Amino acid sequence: MYELFVLLFFMLQMLEIYKNTGVYWFTGQRDAALFNSKEPEQLISKLVDVFFTKDIQQQSSARGSGKHDALCPTTLNECLSKSICFCKIKKNS
Fold first, then answer.
1. For 66, left (φ over 0), alpha (ψ -120 to 50), or beta?
2. What is the pTM of this model?
3. Percent of the chain beyond pLDDT 90?
């Protein structure tokens, strides 16, 4: 029983997407997004799905335009940063 608890604890552990950003995600979300993306565009799409519900995505635009509200700029910037980092890593490997 203890081993199951420890396993679940580590599977459900939340991490900051980047240090000192205040943007957190579960390790399972991170692993799924990073390992299932072949292109940076796929990764940014997966990250936006992790951090913003479909309703929020439908009522918003990335930076806010016209009648649409902007998505949270801090979260969106961290998603973009993560996809740029991903692009550099893939390019060098």
1. left
2. 0.63
3. 0
